[in-house]
Structure formats: structure tokens, C-alpha cells
Design a protein that fits this description.
Length: 494
């Protein structure tokens, strides 16, 4: 017969918040099913008559009948006319279960491939879900013209109907590729055609594709030092050996690259706003780099992740636009210039790489959402993108000035700001003998995100300090956070 505890388990299921979204008969069915799976109701155990269970649970008999019928259809119970309902005799269903200790699974016992273990050890690229000072690389979303975007999206659905719900060309819709080509040719001095553009979900995906398609495990790749942690992890995961080239106020030291005893098929860099220093690669060095790539038959990965936000003078033309030899792969993204959830990035490729890269992309995710692509195309073509960038450029420039002033006023004894010419984050160098890790951990406990500068370097020497994002935070939000950081510094240096 049914025990009191079993009745109570079924009653509890009716009130459990996890089951609240289900109708009553499903709540009863799931509770009984769990009792069977847990071995609380063994094989051939009789179930209460539907009328008796209905009275006990204060529900209708039809509700219990529906639950029993579903359990019977799934094979958990047998029903015999005149004899009632019984738990089914299924050997594997009643196999004794190994008891769990409730302790975390020992990571050493999980068998991953070498590549899988390397991916796991790299911890991925963790982005802050809810912006909080001073997480870098996050745009301001509260000022985005959401109603305008929604109107353009409705137009897309009206004009394309069910075609907008179908698979997109894995290379990207021709509408968006055409809009991007026109924009980057005018604004970035690029040499792009729609046929050479590959639409992706992010710049991170583009970097990973380059690492996998252009290089073999064990190959060298030249990188800036310091460098973006997402690129470094992508290269490590692909089994590449990163060879660091120092950076100064004019960007990567191309002279040291040319003198380096090692060779590599690829060089990766962020020439517009070097991550994390913010330095801009000089025109002379850009031209030197292009000549080096041609002479060595190497590829240049140009990550132009936030080039729209330049605050002093006109931005230098992108490397891709200067490269007559077509050795440059240009990477751009709208997750920084618009909003993170748009999930649209792109590459401008040398023509001979379009087919290989597009094929490789299909093995990852097939294509980017069609409606988002078509909406973004209209946002660009109608001039809204350019207008929005101009607005945000002014706002970000003011926020950068504010952050620099706050640091110089409240943290002058601890860190020295290094304001960049553009971008969405400002590096600050430690001038006080205090641990980066201690400050970062205590700031985290106060809801503040700080990125360690030294963690972005390969080898030594390393520059200690922090990378402070400012784009997504108002002047007041930054001021409050700086006051908290000041207290943390005082407590650790007093």
C-alpha cells in the first residue's frame, strides 16, 4: 500500500515551485515517476485507486486518471482491469543506483580529449553579463535607439515574410555584406567588396577561425605583448606558440619583429587601439608590417574591435586598406559599437581565403540569424549607424576624461592613468607596492570588476596595474566605484 511519506511526496509536488508551470495531472505524474525512479515504489508495487488518491490530494478523479494514463503510456506502470495499477516490471528501471556523496565530481576523473582539456583549462572568455564598473569592452546600451531598431525589424519581417525565418547564406546575407563594405571603405579606408566579407557572430569567433584554418598545432604566431586575453586563449587552445613582440607608444615594435630569429605564418595585432595600452600603430610601422608580410608570405590578422571610438584626430586608415598584396584579414564587430546581444561580427578576407573560411564556419554554427542581419543592414544603410556612432563617440570621450580626472584626484598615490587616444578602456599603472590580486579580489567583493594588466603579458617584464572600462558607466557610477577602490587601497597600504 501507499505509505504516508509517499502520499506526502506527491502532495509536495503539487506545491513545488519547479512544477508550478505544469497542470495538476503532470505534477502528479512527475511526482509518481520520481518515486519509481528513486526506488521508493518497487516493481509490482500497487498504486492507490484513482478515486482514493484524488480524495487524498483534493483533486478530481479525472486529474489522477490522466496522470496514470500518461505513466502507463510511458511504460512506468501496468494497469489491469479489476486489479488496479502496479509499478511496471522493467529490470533496468529498478537497477540499484550508485549513491552520490553530494561532493563535486573529481575533475581528474573526467576524461576529455587533449584539446578539450586545453579548452577547459583556458576557462573561456568570461564576459560580464550585467555591466558593472570597470569591466572593459562593454558598450553603453541604455542610450541605444531600441524603438528605431524594433521598427526596422518589423519592416524586415513585413518585406521578407517567411524568407527571414529560413537559413541564411553561411557567408552572410548579401544586404549586410554590401552595407558593411560601403561603410568600412568610407570610414576605415578599407578595400572591401561584399564577396570578400564573411559574417560571423563575434570577433572572438573570427580569431578562433584564423587560428584553426591558417595554422597547425605547434606552429608559431607573432602577437603583441601585452595582448587581448581572448586572442591569447584562442591561440593556446589551437596549440599555437605565441611569440610576443613588445609594444610602445607607436604600437607594435615592427623593427623587433623583423629582427626576430623565429618565423611564423601569421601575426595578430590590434593596430587602431592596441589592447590594452590603447596605442595606435603608426603609419610608417603599418607599411613596414605589410612589406614584412609580403616578403615572408605571412598573414596579418587585424583586429579592429573598437576603431569607431577614436577621440583625438582622424583615425589612421586600416592596415587592410593599405595592403596592396592582400595579406591582411580584417576583423570587425558590432557587439562593441552597438550592443552585445546583436552577436554580429565580420571578416574582410583575401579572396583566396573566402571559401576555406566560410566552409570552416559552417562546421561551427552554420550562419548568423537572418532577421538580425537584415535589420542591421537597414540600420547602416539608412544612416542610423553613423549617427549613433557619432553620438556615442562624444559620450565616451567625456567619460574617458571624467575617469582620468577621478583617478588623478582620488587615486593619485596608488595608480597613474594612461589615457588612450581611443577605445573603451583606460590602463592604469600601479605606483604603490600593493598586490594586484588583493585589490582585484576585494573590489570584486564590492561589485567592481578590475582586470590585471600584468596578466595580459607573455613572459617578462610585466607592467603591474589595472584596465578600467568606462564606456558603459555614467560619471556618477564611476565616481562611486572610484571611492570604493580608494578605500580598498587605503586599507591595504595604511
Amino acid at each position: 500500500m501507499f505509505k504516508h511519506s509517499q502520499f506526502e511526496s506527491v502532495k509536495a509536488a503539487l506545491m513545488h515551485p519547479d512544477y508550478a508551470k505544469y497542470p495538476l495531472y503532470l505534477r502528479i505524474q512527475r511526482a509518481l515517476r520520481q518515486l519509481i525512479l528513486d526506488g521508493e515504489l518497487p516493481a509490482n508495487h500497487p498504486l492507490p485507486a484513482s478515486r482514493a488518491l484524488a480524495v487524498s490530494l483534493n483533486v478530481s478523479r479525472d486529474t489522477v486518471e490522466n496522470a496514470y494514463s500518461l505513466l502507463h503510456a510511458e511504460g512506468y506502470i501496468e494497469r489491469q482491469v479489476g486489479s488496479g495499477s502496479f509499478v511496471a516490471e522493467v529490470p533496468l528501471l529498478h537497477k540499484p543506483k550508485r549513491k552520490t556523496t553530494g561532493r563535486p565530481v573529481d575533475q581528474a576523473s573526467i576524461q576529455l580529449s587533449k584539446r578539450g582539456q586545453k579548452i577547459f583549462n583556458n576557462e573561456g572568455v568570461r564576459e560580464t553579463l550585467t555591466p558593472r564598473p570597470f569591466a572593459p569592452g562593454i558598450p553603453e546600451t541604455r542610450l541605444f535607439p531600441l524603438s528605431l531598431w524594433a521598427r526596422l525589424e518589423r519592416q524586415v519581417i513585413r518585406d521578407y515574410q517567411f524568407k527571414a525565418l529560413q537559413h541564411s547564406d553561411p557567408q552572410g546575407t548579401k544586404e549586410l555584406r554590401r552595407a558593411i563594405a560601403h561603410y568600412v571603405n568610407i570610414e576605415r579606408g578599407a578595400h572591401a567588396t561584399p564577396e570578400r566579407i564573411l559574417i560571423l557572430t563575434s570577433s572572438q569567433q573570427a580569431i578562433a577561425l584564423c587560428a584553426q584554418v591558417l595554422l597547425d598545432e605547434g606552429d608559431n604566431i607573432f602577437t603583441e605583448n601585452p595582448l587581448y586575453q581572448g586572442a591569447r586563449k584562442a591561440f593556446n587552445t589551437a596549440g599555437l606558440t605565441s611569440i610576443p613582440i613588445p609594444v610602445d607608444q607607436q604600437g607594435m615594435r615592427v623593427d623587433l619583429l623583423k629582427q626576430h630569429p623565429s618565423s611564423a605564418k601569421v601575426i595578430s595585432l590590434t593596430p587602431s587601439h592596441q589592447y590594452p595600452t590603447g596605442a595606435t600603430l603608426s603609419l610608417e610601422r603599418r607599411l613596414e608590417l605589410i612589406e614584412w608580410a609580403e616578403q615572408n608570405q605571412a598573414w596579418i590578422i587585424e583586429d579592429d574591435y573598437d576603431s569607431e571610438f577614436h577621440y583625438a584626430g582622424k583615425p589612421t586608415a586600416c592596415v587592410q586598406g593599405l595592403d596592396a598584396y592582400q595579406r591582411t584579414i580584417y576583423i570587425g564587430t558590432f557587439t562593441k559599437s552597438l550592443f552585445p546581444s546583436v552577436r554580429i561580427g565580420y571578416m574582410i578576407l583575401p579572396m583566396q581565403l573566402v571559401a576555406p573560411m566560410t566552409t570552416a564556419r559552417t562546421l561551427q554554427d552554420g550562419h548568423t540569424a537572418t532577421i538580425s542581419q537584415l535589420t542591421l543592414a537597414r540600420f547602416i544603410e539608412n544612416g542610423h549607424f553613423g549617427a549613433y556612432i557619432r553620438q556615442m563617440r562624444q559620450i565616451y570621450a567625456k567619460r574617458l576624461i571624467t575617469l582620468e580626472q577621478l583617478v588623478r584626484t582620488h587615486l593619485k598615490n596608488f595608480i597613474e592613468p594612461m589615457p588612450p587616444l581611443g577605445g573603451m578602456q583606460m590602463p592604469c599603472v600601479l605606483i604603490d607596492r600593493v598586490s594586484e590580486d588583493v585589490i582585484i579580489e576585494q573590489a570584486k567583493q564590492q561589485g567592481i570588476t578590475l582586470i590585471s594588466l600584468s596578466s595580459l603579458y607573455i613572459g617578462t617584464p610585466k607592467q603591474a596595474g589595472f584596465l578600467l572600462g568606462f564606456a558603459a558607466y555614467t560619471e556618477r557610477e564611476m565616481e562611486l566605484a572610484i571611492q570604493v577602490i580608494r578605500k580598498i587601497f587605503i586599507e591595504n597600504t595604511g
